[in-house]
What does this fold into?
Amino acid sequence: MIAPTSTAAVLIARVSSKDQEDEGFSLEAQVKILTNYCNPAGLRIGKIYKIAESASKSERRKIFKEAMDYVAQHNVKHLVVEKVDRHVRNLHDAVDTHDWLMADEERRVHFVKDSLTMHKNSKSQEWLNWGIRVVMAKNYIDNLREEITKGTYEKLAQGWLPGTPPPGYKNIVRDGKSIQDLDPDKHKSMQRIFQMFLEPQYSVNSIRYKMFEFGLVSASGRMFTKSQTHRIIKNPYYIGIIKWNGKEYEGKHPHLISDELFYAVQAKLTRKTPAKFRKHNPVLKGIMTCEHCSKTITWQKQKGRLYGACQRKAPDCKQQKFVREDAVMGLIERKLDDLICPAPQVIDWLVTLLKQDFQLSVNNIEQAQKALDDRLARIKRMDDMLYDDKLAGLISAERYREKHESFVSELKGLERQKGGVSQQYEEKYMNGVSEIQLSQDAKRLFADANISNDEKRIILTKLFKKISLKDNVVSVTYTKLARAIAVNSGQTKEILGYAK
It folds into this structure.
């Protein structure tokens, strides 16, 4: 139970800035001051509210409202605060406090360090004192907000994110400034997530489980929600674009993935689910060709079956019969079965070979990066010399501006190119690993009724270089890597005695 209403008091403690909270001007110190004030004054503390600046704006407002509601509902007569600017931060807080005082002449607000006690019948000079302090408190907060906003946009103009970067990046301090760089422990995992998302079996919902498996989690260590995952893989920050309050800024942080990969992911995100009522949507639509005329095989339904043919305009084409889709699908399924290796060690060996090839490419990357670094340094020196010439009056301001813009444009292009060199090799390697993994699961996915025909076409384009028709014979040609997988899988089956 709360103490008798005539002497019951509620304390509100609040630090005025995040720095004060961090540097030891703690809420507990304020509570001690307020408690020491209450004891000799004969006030009994019923409840204490603490408002930390580390809390969100809505949370701070919520705590303040709870305190004001509490004193009103429990008929508390005394509200004790350190200073006016600890109690009110805006005119809304001031109005709430004023209304509370006006409702009962026994109510008091004690501002300990201001030596000010406000009540309904306070003198005009005291109300003036109160009003001035409220306006000053509001001005302090407005000025603080203005400085923060100014600093935020200055940081954006310099090409850096004024906040926490998305997964794959981390904040670091360089030359006394907080900037962003790739997270050495997580950026490769995030690159892999973008690659995997393009695979037919992954959706926004399923890819978040992979993110959790790779250790890509929220600040609280939890798995990202579906909506959070969607925002992450839709974020153009990964290709050097900072979005802030509806505007885009060019970032100086390193690109995590290539533009091509990012926009391929965006295309999948916005791709509409095939309509259930679509009359015909054959799996082989648009990917099988006639070798005589090089035209695409089109499909039509006859007596419950799909039949395909080219436009049949060339003489050789007219000699060909219509090909049944189920016959072609049977051949494709056998080809997919040939990719499955009964010995996982062989697949691991292929991945190792690919990794070794990637490592051999690192030397080329370093040479290319060094050449780009030299070119960047040379252009920066030329730009500095140009500025010196302008100061010395050797060139006109217009000529300086023209050449300077040219140098800046070239610098930006080289920075993008610099990031792209390593990305090309990285993505080539990851695509290879992805294709190897897909080859072992493709047959199951192809037979899965829950996988759409659009997604099955993606499987075919990843594993087969060509599916064609010539003289009534269907040919299916693997990609270079898929052919190597099929050959090694076939040899392994022979060694292990698998029946064909």
Summary: The mean pLDDT is 81.
